[in-house]
Amino acid sequence: MPAHWAKGLTYLISLALASFVLFTVKCNPDDTIGDLKRMLSLLTGTRADKIRIQKGYIVYKDHVSLQDYEISHGSSLEMYYQ
């Protein structure tokens, strides 16, 4: 988990896998999609580079922060295995 979790604002983000499995992950606005994928990797046992995060047809890039994508508390995203 990122070291900066102890300070500031946190988000709870829900991720659905094939609309059956739901993960809720605690994140900070300045966490990147790559950070989110690493957290999901710990939960699922799947390598982070094999996880794809998207919403609709938009696939999110690893180096971009959650706030840059305007992902906020209560957002729902989709998680797929590549």
Automatic annotation (TrEMBL):
Residues 13-82 form the Ubiquitin-like domain. Residues 1-18 form the signal peptide. SUPFAM superfamilies: Ubiquitin-like (SSF54236). It comes from the Eukaryota. Gene3D superfamilies: Phosphatidylinositol 3-kinase Catalytic Subunit, Chain A, domain 1 (3.10.20.90). Keywords: Signal, Ubl conjugation pathway. InterPro entries: Hub1/Ubl5, Ubiquitin-like_dom, Ubiquitin-like_domsf. Pfam families: ubiquitin. PANTHER family: UBIQUITIN-LIKE PROTEIN 5 (PTHR13042). This is Ubiquitin-like protein 5.
